[in-house]
Specification:
Strand order of the largest sheet: 2-1-5-4-3
Number of strands: 5
Low-confidence stretches: none
Distance between the termini: 20 Å
Helix content: 40-55%
CATH architecture: 2-Layer Sandwich
CATH topology: Beta-Lactamase
Number of domains: 1
Length: about 130
């Protein structure tokens, strides 16, 4: 059973993610996930894939960090995956020990995804500190 506080936290993330998805209709998924591969918060146009995305985010980040280290460019800040059908953006938040993953279908401005990620982090930082203390 959810406590009142956890319901408030969930509604804050829901509001933040809804606003982001309305501002960029191409966005299909927004995930905040832990280093351990757990879902912190999630919003998607298709339900049921949040656990897989949360589990894969730290694996992708670790692989990227290893590659960056091999060429002497550490630390890694963000990962951008571009494909024929869309774009995925992954970054470790500065304000909390979680990953932010944004997946968009079709053509999307990468600069807007980065800006949106910064806005999500700014809006969610207080809630994340409360949740992760």
């Amino acid at each position: 059973m959810m406590t009142t506080e956890s319901m408030k936290i969930e509604s804050v993330f829901d509001r933040i993610f809804d606003r982001a998805m309305r501002s960029q209709p191409q966005i299909q998924d927004i995930l905040l996930g832990s280093d351990q591969g757990l879902v912190v918060a999630f919003k998607s146009t298709v339900k049921g894939k949040e656990a897989r995305l949360a589990a894969l985010a730290p694996v992708l980040a670790d692989a990227g960090e290893t590659l960056f280290g091999e060429v002497g460019l550490s630390p890694l800040g963000e990962i951008l995956l571009l494909g024929n059908d869309g774009t995925m953006y992954l970054a470790r938040l500065k304000s909390a020990p979680v990953f932010l993953l944004i997946a968009a279908k079709g053509q999307v401005n990468v600069g807007l995804l980065r800006m949106l990620a910064s806005e999500i982090e700014a809006e969610a930082s207080d809630v994340l500190r409360t949740l992760l203390r």
